[in-house]
Design a protein that fits this description.
Number of helices: 7
Radius of gyration: 29 Å
Order of helices and strands: HEEEEEEHHEHEHHH
Helix content: 40-55%
Shape: flat
Length: 221
Amino acid sequence: MFRHALLAALSALTAIVQQAQTPARVTLAVVGGRIIDGYGGPVIENGVILISGDRISAVGRVSDLVVPTGTPVIDANGHTVMPGLIDMHVHLHLVGHGDYKRWNDLYGTRDASVVMPIAARQLLMAGVTTARDLGARLEDILSVKRRIAAGELVLRQGERVTQGHLDALTALGLRNEALDTMAVLVIVVMVNLIVGFVTVYLRLFHNGSETDSWRWRLRQR
């Protein structure tokens, strides 16, 4: 019995090895574009990317890499092919408006259902495949993230954007207009302090004769 079990195990192992050694069938080829690998490697002009299922199986130049007969081809001539970009600071619930009150009155309850999917698609069309949301409501962020992960929000055939993360105020449920206004005031005060300090410094140390006179008075003391 042990012998039969050993033979069965060897047979299964042989099948696994053979399967691993068999090249995966190429299901798609992207041909003719400029390829940037994202790791600082040399740019490949007139390149080819062979895709097997959901994996890239080979990358090279048109002159070096053969596209199997019958493989669907995407013509990338005149385009750049590169890994998806990562945007570390987005607001999916804001889409180019300048009037927050009117925007919130019109769409404040439809961020997750209407606005954020549109913004995610815009990011994807710009080459961004991962985004870090720093301002939307936590429940909206998580809702859109789950729907994208589940395939309910297919932004383009075969493409999805993953998005998540938020700032500390949103995470704690403390984000509101009063805190936003306070943050703006703090920034304004800090900027004015810095500008004032720089102005005084320049007047004291970089005003020619006035500066020399001021330094001379210091030396006399």
